[in-house]
Each structure stands twice: as structure tokens, then as C-alpha cells.
Amino acid sequence: MILLYVANSALLLFNVIYYREFTDFMTINTIFGYSTVSQGLSGSSLALMKPQDIILFFDFILLILGFVFKIIKLDNRQVPRVQAIALSVFSLMFLMLNITLGEIDRPQLLGRTFDRNYLVKYLGIDTYTIYDGLKTARNSQVRDSAGSSDLNEIIDYKNQHYAAPNPKMFGVAKGKNVIIIHLESFQQFLIDYKLDGKEVTPFINSLYHSNDTYSFANFFNQVGQGKTSDAENMLETSTYGLPQGSLFSMLGSDNTFEASPAILNQTSGYTSAVFHGNAGSFWNRNSVYKNFGYNYFFDASYYDTKPQNLTEYGLKDKLLFHDSVKYLERLQQPFMAKFITVSNHFPYALDKANTDFKAANTSDESVNNYFVTAHYLDQALQEFFEYLKKSGLYDNTMIVMYGDHYGISNTRNLKLAPLLGKSASTWNKFDDAQMQRVPFMIHIPGNKNGGIQQQYGGEIDVLPTIEHLLGINSQPYIQFGTDLFSKQHDQTVAFRNENFITPKYTVIGNTIYENSSGNVVTHPSKKLQKYVDKQADKVIRELSLSDTLNNKNLLRFYIPHNFTPIDPKLYNYKNQMKQLIKTENKLGKKSKSIWSMNNNKSTIDDYSTNAPELSNETSSENSSSSSESSTMYESPTQ
């Protein structure tokens, strides 16, 4: 009992110290990987401790004093068996009650495991550690049984499924910077939509119809329980998320990946960075991004996260774009930079100071406010584009925008239906499936050959498409998507639940819908049934192969030509402004950052925003501080 007591207190103390450094809790792999911990804790443990930590040992002091002054005495009598069993059952009952209450307040808490902060908050540090240990043991067991021969079928499928690039599109953006903008919960129906005669997203609409933009009208999200993290995984690796839970959270810390940051860096010398105003531990990003090969990750600790600057899921979008400039301008070109917005996230709450768009009038507040936050996101995006043009980045940058998943859930679609000119009484599963369309736009300034594309595709297809536009052949890598511009592109869009959509048909379970009419095909011909069965088999096989690849971590056995597997220990997301400045100083006149090319001056003054949180004084302070290392702020409350 004494050993358990000491171990429990030590576990608590080590997690407190670890959290101060990483804003995250220790996993079993972290605990047993001493070298990783010692490398990650840049300062000594003593330096990270605070005077109030004495409270963690206050009980020990009381116990010692109790024994010294004989207030507490050892009782050598054996605990009665009935009493021991009763106490154990009583404890287990309360554990199950606690887990049940946690699941009620945060559905799929254990299934999705999207943030260790939530697990510890609801379950406690002990239960979380045991849960993580069981999960780690299960993953290890699956992986220990894997071998390189398990890759054979996957490689065969990859080779058969490969779609050669369109010669007219291959390399049209070669050498350009890549900016990827994650449009949180943004659905396709918002494009060109007018509420009470007013465009909800006028700027995004203008991009969608621009000749410089390849816009996809039939592009679908393919996420599972991992939601945003699933979308990121598909865009970065062209592999699917898991059938249950989030791949980022469950496997991302240990898996080997062939992700876009590493591919672009090793083939074309790209620097990579992610900008996101939420805690780095959310969706386990602070670990996954290292395994992807991202050079930099600017999470909430790099931004001013005063309460008025935040939404429920992090920094407001206008502030994210504005406050990221001081880091963006120091990246060496060419770079790939990803911005993850959050303001357009359920429950779509935005303070009055940031709202100038009238909400819809339904009985569901989240549906009503969805248009308000989408309009705010549109304004934030327009401000960022204006900055890119003024700073000189715009002309040499390919800008990719995508909606990660639905914003209005199937359960709320009935409230939305009248706003879309449809009847709630006739709304069905076909309509739900069609609502999974999200925007996907590739904006290449000066290209003038863009337009609205009608081919069907999904998030799994983004990586090979981007690679080919940059002049990088996707064939060496294991990817389940195909180039959207290729004549051999596979237009069958698989959903994580094994339903799928083709250009002519939507298949949900055993029901076939005709896309042109939405009607059920009650008596399909033998030819149609054979076609549907063939597509269903392909979808099931593709999802299964992706799951096998990820669950068994098979990419550790597969090294493409001229590709070096990523070593996450080489990446450190602390004090990154100093890292950026150090690189600039090392390169000297060869530095290709916007800062260096602007005669060592900041471009922050090129950024114009109407964000009420930013006064002229604040903007001036941000500009003057951009030559210094970043100020570290506390992460937002989870």
C-alpha cells in the first residue's frame, strides 16, 4: 500500500511537470521512453517545479509526523475478506458511474479519445493511465504480429489503383509556396447561398468562380469519428481514418507515415508549418505532426489567448491569421503552411462585437448561427488574402481551401431543409448523403485556366492531386486516393461506414438512389446491380487495406526510393521563433523568408483587419515584437 501510495504521488507530480512543458499528459510510451522525456523536457525538472507543488507531498508530511508523534499506528491485523471484496466492488461501482457520467457529458469519450485533457478531466490521472496502458498493449500486440509480407496486397492494390497525372496539369504550380486553409465545418451549400437576399460568404464565392481557381462541385468529406483529425490525416497521407476513434489519437504517436510535409521537403526542399489557436494536445497534434515531418507547429501557446480572443475551440479566425504573420514571414520559401480555423465550429457562438450578419430564423439556434460564423470566416479569409497580395506572397503561392466535415449534423438537417427550399417531411438518407459535400478549391494566381470541376472526389484524393500540381510523382508512395485531374481518376467516393457515391448513384446500405432524381432504384437491372456490387467490394477492400496499413504500422517496412523515414525526435516545437531567426542568420543573404526579402523588416503593417480585439496599440506591439522571440501564453481551457 505504501509503494502504491508513493507511485501514485510520483505519477501526479511527473504529470504536473510534464504538462507545464508540453500542455499534455504523459502516455505509457512516454513514461517508459525515458530518453524521449529527458530530451523533451528542455529545462531541468526542478526548474519546472513551483512552490505550490509542496501540496502534492503535504499528505506525506502529515503521515510522517503522525508516525513520529504516534498519532498514527500500524495495525498488523489482516483485513477481513468480506470487507476487502465489498470495498473493491464499491470502488468499481463508482468507477463505472464516473465513466458513465463522463460519457453523458462528453459522448464517445473513450471511443474517440480526441484529447488527453478531456480523459484526465473526466476520469482522473490513474484511470487515464490504465486506459492508455491497455490501449498501448493492444496496439503493440497487433503490431508485433505484423510483417513485411502483410504489405503485398496493399502494394498490389496501390499499383493497380494508381492514376497517372494529367500532362496539362502536372507541375503547373511547381516551386510555388503552398498555403492550405482548413475551413472548419464549412459545407458546400454555403457557396453562393443567400440568406434574406444577402450572400453569406461573398469573398469565398468570388474565389469559387475565379478563373484562377479550380473549384470542385462534387467533393465530399469522408471523415469518421475522428472528424477534423480524420480530414487532416486524409489530406496529409491519403489514407483513411479508423472505423472507430481517431487515428491521430489512437495511433498517431507511434505510427510511421509518408506525409505531405516530409514528401515536399525531401523532393522539393519545402519548409512546413501549422498554425492553430488551440492546445497542441488536441487530437494529439503535437505528437502526430512530428511523425508527419512538420518543421513548425504554432499552437495556442504562441498566441495571446485572453478570454475575449477565444471561441470554445481556440483563437478566433481573424486573430489567427493576423497574429500568425510574424511567424509566416520568417518561414523559408518555398513553404507549405496550414491554417486551421475554428470560429465556424459547433455551437457556432460568436460575440456581438464580431457579428454583422443576421442569423437565420429557425427553431434551432445552432442552425441559425451557422450562417453568422460562416460569414465571419469569410471576412477573415478576405483579410488574409489582401495581406498576401500586399506582402508579395500571393503571386508565388498556391492556396488550397477545403471544408473538413459537415457543420449541420443529420439530426439538424430537418431544421435546415426549409432554408434550402426542401421539405422536412420528404427529407431522407439520400439528402443526408448529398449534404456531405464540402468545398475544395485550388487557387493558383495568374493561372486563368481554372473553373468549376464536375468530377467526383473526396479528401482521400487531395494529396496526389497537390503532388502532381507541384510536379511530384505520387507513384512511389502508398496512397489510396487518385489525382482529381487524372483521366484515370477513380470517381467512387467511399464513406467510412462503407456507403459510397458515384457520379450517377448513391448507395446507402442496400439501397440505391439515382443522383439525378433522388429516387430509389427499386428494381435495379442485372447490369446496374453488378456495377454496384463491384464498387461496394472495392470500397470495402480499400477501407480494409487502409485499416491494415495503419493498425499494423506497415509503413515501417516500406521505404520509397529517395525517401527517408521521419525521426520525430528531431522535431521540437518549443521556442520556434528563435529557430526561425537562427535559420535566417545562418543562411544570411541566401535566406528566402519574406522578412529577409523585405530588407529585414516585418510585413505586419500590410495586414488590415477589423477585428475588435485588436486596437492600434496592440497591432503596433505585435509589429515591434516580431523581430523577437515569441511570447509564450497559457493554453486555452479545454
From TrEMBL:
SUPFAM superfamilies the UniProt entry points to: Alkaline phosphatase-like
Amino-acid biosynthesis listed as a keyword: no
Main location: membrane
Cellular localization per UniProt: Cell membrane
Membrane topology, record value: Multi-pass membrane protein
GO CC, one annotated term: plasma membrane
Biased composition (Low complexity): 615-631
Span of domain Sulfatase N-terminal: 176-472
This protein's record includes keyword Transferase: yes
Catalytic residue list: T228
Keywords: Cell membrane, Manganese, Membrane, Metal-binding, Transferase, Transmembrane, Transmembrane helix
Region (Disordered): 598-638
Domain of life: Bacteria
Pfam family, one: Sulfatase
Molecular function per GO: metal ion binding; transferase activity
The protein's name: Phosphatidylglycerol--membrane-oligosaccharide glycerophosphotransferase
Organism annotation: Ligilactobacillus hayakitensis DSM 18933 = JCM 14209
